[in-house]
């Protein structure tokens, strides 16, 4: 079981960050023990990139992408029933699928569509390059928040196969029950703004919220090349 590190003063509050960059700067303050170590910051595009860029900059660490994609629920694309990892492994929310009663054809269609998007993103963000050797490294995986957590758990399961010394998940905001879901698979989980209320929306932690364009993501990433 991993260790949860949080900011108790932000528990169950909303609109606590100006934007993702502000959240990243504040998150970096909780990760100072990793400053100028052999740690590698891995950002989940797109929303995790500006957060991760601030962390990597403050801690003087390299940053790279880890590409995972949510499997969207038909007719409700803001929600997901699982995720696809960087190696194509499919992680399904079996409990939710039992409630949704999606057909095998609907699931397979979404998996194929999401796989195609992931391949395109790999070319855009990574130019087809594999991740560097992660063996015995400390890995800090960053996104802009944890809702269902399946995108993050897909990333974590991929990383565990590559024998890192330590996996740290770091997010500005997260749903408490999702944090409990992820904690057994990581060494540390850093979350500034833990919330237990439902329904939960990552966006409610931010006063300024928008979908990032690929151009902004790439512009931020260029600073670490």
Word description of this protein:
The protein has 225 residues and is α/β, with parallel strands linked by helices. The chain has two domains: 3-67 and 130-222, 3-Layer(aba) Sandwich (Rossmann fold), CATH 3.40.50.2020; 70-125, PRTase-like (Ybab, Chain: A, 2-Layer Sandwich). Helix content is 35%, strand content 23%. The longest helix is centred in the middle third of the chain and has 23 residues, at 104-126.
Give a nutshell description of this structure.
The chain is built from seven helices and nine strands, in the order βαβαββββααβαβαβα. By secondary structure, the chain is of the alpha/beta class.
Supply the CATH class of the largest domain: Alpha Beta
Order of helices and strands: EHEHEEEEHHEHEHEH
Which spans have pLDDT < 50 for at least 5 consecutive residues? none
Q: Would you give the CATH topology of the largest domain? A: Rossmann fold
Average pLDDT works out at: 92
Query: What overall form do the CA principal axes indicate?
Result: globular
Global structural class: alpha/beta
Please tell me the CATH architecture of the largest domain by its name: 3-Layer(aba) Sandwich
Rounded to the nearest angstrom, the radius of gyration is 16 Å
Largest sheet: 6 strands, parallel
**How many separate helices?**
7
Number of strands: 9
Helical coverage, percent range: 25-40%
- Integer count of domains: 2
Give the termini distance in whole angstroms: 35 Å
Strand content: 15-25%
Q: What's the arrangement of strands in the largest beta sheet?
A: 1-9-8-7-2-3
